[in-house]
TrEMBL record, chain B:
Record lineage: Bacteria, Pseudomonadati, Pseudomonadota, Gammaproteobacteria, OMG group
GO biological process, one term: electron transport coupled proton transport
Record's protein name: NADH-quinone oxidoreductase subunit B
An annotated Gene Ontology molecular function: NADH dehydrogenase (quinone) (non-electrogenic) activity
UniProt EC number: 7.1.1.-
Length: 598, 213
């Protein structure tokens, strides 16, 4: 571990590709850029009218800037602006559609916004530019009722087809207890089941080809190998997969709506349950985003504690992936071995955080409490114990001939495919492209650690697994550096917006006591701003886009999760394979449904 | 039903006459009512349905693996289809979109069937009082045991299973087709665990400090 450097993370606006793109857009569009918004994440944010957004997106998609491209549509979402107070300088808008583009080659971001009004909610689709826009646009339609002209199948994505209203509009009730009590009699069950029925014609699928009749197989939403409440309808010609339609929304817990209701502080436990295998790593992008808006700098000790726990959860998550991956292609034993390490790690997590899967232990401006005495003993045991076990698993799983034959050359895609579909994380690195947020845009002090970014070459199921296995070894390396070099100091910042605030000062005089009381009861008031914060989560880029309207709760919480993008890609990479290969492909993606539907 | 096992090596061979024969019979022959025997068998051969909704399923799966090993309690034969199972653990959040599916799966379980509601979401909606979540699976399914926690530890699920087994063991069912309305002989209303264990929990005065491992 090197001495902490004072050089901050590359600022996006100053990245050559970002600057060049903005300058080029200014030259082409002139007045048609309605506004250039400043946000505290310093991502260039340009407002376009509905009439010019398609041209702007096409230009950014096809042109190079300073020799680099914006390869990926990282996120596409919307904001209901109707009750927002602090919008100084922004164009009038009731609903704003937001495009978040990302340049991997130039390491920069770009954000476009389009203002819309409630009586005329539509804009052109971007599906012909980026295939992954498909689901994002369906989600926006589902949640806000904004139509995308030219979208091939603009059906609801997340909520049931029988749903009325659009959940993320401000007038839609948030609580189940505000709505009619839920009942489910036999007649209602039939109606719902009928609505969920897969109709191939809706998806432009034929029921027969010239020489054979297709079979439609419904896999899920409860099937042991779909890893949760996920459904995929497949079109089969014999055993060959012709096409597939994933159906999601069976795990939608309304986390984004929840973010508008919970205080900044009390939303933290909800983030744990987004990627429910990632534990406290989910807290990280959220608290860092809030800290950025609040202007909080956290002590070095906090950064290292956060990194250490996040990496432990990365190992935990990868172990579960590793075991279930082997299980899905036919090996029953490995998972029983791998859960031993998971239990060891959970023991450590529990002794530090007090809970196993969802500790919710990070805080705005710090962590919940200091490390307990003797915390490093069990971690050192793990560091001694685990490498040999990982080697054993290599011979048990990765070197197993059957597993190789089942997964090599199956479900392969190129780096370009990955960009087109918004694939990040191990799925991108398996194609041979070295990109990891921890290296490219170090956060929470990752720049001080020595570790490698494993990559593979073929981008198939086997490579995705191999990359994750190597990542576990790198995580162990990072954890070792944390244990060896844990800085002393505070576990909490002294900034006034740190939540819960420091108690010492509250006992001094009435003013600090009042502030302490308000901060604990109502929670902190975060100054109005917008921020997007991304991390390299267990499954890829997890990003929180928060809008504060100067209140005790977020005005809009957008959670960009990696699994959402990855699932959308399944049909594209599984056509022409057999049903049993589809199982291997699903297993190799490593998703959890909470990370898809949120 | 009380019985004990003895290792084959140490058990004495039966002898003619005397009390040893009585002892042998006592050890090897069980005199019970058939319905007690059936209840005992049912209690110790629950076949769970492989079903999970969200985070709780991971802890449920952990209960099946080596460290916790649910097999010790005779309930490890997980079935992939509800038509071969008689117990479902509602492990996770029950979503509005998923509810009709859960209902159908429950309807397909074999009679007699039992439901364990695992975790706060399935118990009551828990921390998700939100438009897309059913506020407790008992809104449309009868629940036998509620396991609390978010997610519950694997040990908590094991305890829930033991409570269910105890309750099944106390149930008596008619052993043949009956004409009158005999039906299931209802067990007594179980006392809430909070009441049973409350005094013991309150009695704890020394809790482990969070400052030490």
């Amino acid at each position: 571990m090197r001495v902490p450097s004072t050089v901050s993370v590359t600022e996006n606006l100053n990245a050559p590709v970002g600057l060049a793109a903005v300058e080029h857009l200014r030259a082409v569009f002139g007045d048609r850029i309605l506004h250039e918004q400043l946000t505290c994440d310093e991502i260039p944010t340009l407002w376009f009218a509905r009439e010019s957004i398609q041209q702007a997106l096409t230009l950014v998609r096809e042109q190079t800037f300073a020799g680099q491209r914006f390869e990926m549509l990282l996120d596409l979402t919307a904001i209901d602006e109707r009750v927002r107070v602090n919008r100084a300088g922004q164009p009038a808008s009731e609903f704003t559609v937001v495009y978040h583009l990302m340049s991997f080659s130039g390491n920069a971001d770009l954000r476009f916004k389009v203002p819309l009004f409630d009586d005329d909610l539509h804009l052109p689709t971007a599906t012909f530019l980026w295939p992954n826009a498909n689901w994002y646009e369906r989600e926006v339609w589902d949640m806000f009722g904004i139509r995308f002209d030219g979208h091939p199948n603009l059906y609801r994505l997340v909520l049931p087809p029988t749903w009325e209203g659009h959940a993320l509009r401000k007038e839609h009730p948030a609580r189940a207890t505000e709505m009619e009590p839920f009942t489910l009699d036999d007649a209602q069950t039939d109606i719902e089941q009928e609505a969920l029925k897969f109709k191939p014609e809706e998806w432009g699928m034929k029921r027969a080809s010239e020489d054979s009749e297709f079979m439609f197989l419904n896999l899920g939403p409860n099937h042991p190998s779909v890893h949760g409440a996920f459904r995929i309808a497949v079109q089969l010609d014999g055993e060959i997969l012709v096409d597939a339609v994933p159906d999601i929304g069976y795990h939608h817990r309304g986390a984004e709506k929840m973010g508008e209701r919970q205080s900044w502080h009390t939303f933290i436990p909800y983030t744990d349950r987004i990627d429910y295998l990632g534990g406290v790593m989910n807290n990280l992008p959220y608290v860092m985003a809030v800290e950025k808006m609040a202007g909080i700098e956290v002590p070095e000790r906090v950064k290292v504690i956060r990194v250490m726990l996040s990496e432990m959860f990365r190992i935990c998550s990868h172990l579960l992936f590793y075991g279930t991956f082997a299980q899905d292609v036919g090996q029953l034993s490995p998972i029983f071995y791998m859960f031993v390490e998971r239990e060891r790690i959970f023991n450590i997590i529990e002794s530090i955080c007090g809970a196993r899967m969802h500790p919710g232990w990070f805080r705005i401006g710090g962590v919940a409490q200091d490390l307990p005495q003797g915390w490093e003993v069990r971690i050192r045991e793990l560091l001694d114990f685990m490498p040999a076990r990982l080697d054993e698993y290599d011979s048990m799983v990765l070197n197993n001939g059957i597993l190789k034959r089942r997964t090599q050359g199956v479900g392969a895609y190129t780096t370009q495919d990955a960009f087109d579909w918004g694939v990040t994380g191990a799925g991108l690195r398996a194609t041979g492209y070295e990109w990891d947020m921890r290296k490219q845009r170090p956060y929470s002090g990752y720049e001080n650690f020595e570790f490698d970014i494993p990559i593979a070459a073929n981008g198939d199921c086997y490579d995705r697994c191999a990359v994750r296995v190597e990542e576990m070894r790198q995580s162990l390396r990072i954890i070792k550096q944390c244990v060896d070099n844990m800085p002393s100091g505070d576990y909490k910042s002294s900034h006034p917006l740190t939540t819960p605030p420091r108690k010492e000062k509250s006992m001094q005089d009435i003013e600090t006591l009042i502030n302490h009381f308000l901060s604990v009861s109502w929670g902190p008031v975060i100054p109005p701003n917008e921020v997007s914060m991304s991390i390299e989560a267990t499954k890829g880029i997890n990003s929180y886009y928060l809008i504060s309207d100067g209140n005790t709760a977020s005005y809009r919480t957008r959670i960009r999760t990696p699994s959402f993008a990855h699932l959308q890609m399944i049909p594209a990479i599984s056509r022409g394979f057999m049903v049993s290969d589809l199982i291997a492909i699903i297993a190799s993606i490593d998703f959890v449904m909470a990370d898809v539907d949120r | 039903m009380n019985w004990s096992l003895e290792s084959a090596e140490t058990a004495a061979a039966p002898q003619r006459g005397g009390s040893e024969m009585d002892e042998f019979i006592r050890r090897n022959v069980m005199m019970v009512k058939l319905e007690d025997m059936v209840a005992w068998g049912r209690k110790n051969s629950i076949w769970p349905f492989n079903f999970g909704l969200s985070c709780c399923y991971v802890e449920m799966a952990t209960a099946f693996t080596s460290r916790h090993d649910l097999a010790r309690f005779g309930a490890e034969v997980i079935r992939g289809t509800p038509r071969q199972a008689d117990m479902i653990v509602i492990a996770g959040t029950v979503f509005r979109k998923m509810a009709p599916v859960v209902k159908q799966l429950y309807d397909q379980l074999l009679e007699p069937k039992w439901v364990i509601s695992m975790g706060s979401c399935a118990n009551s909606g828990g921390m998700y009082d939100i438009y897309s979540v059913v506020q407790g699976v008992d809104k449309f399914l009868p629940v036998d045991v509620y396991v609390s926690g978010c997610p519950p530890r694997p040990e908590a699920l094991l305890q829930g299973l033991l409570l269910l087994q105890e309750s099944i063991g106390n149930q008596r069912r008619p052993l043949s087709w009956v004409i009158n309305e005999q039906g299931i002989i209802q067990r007594e209303e179980n006392e809430v665990q909070r009441v049973i264990r409350g005094p013991e929990r309150i009695a704890a005065t020394e809790l482990r400090s969070p400052d030490e491992v």
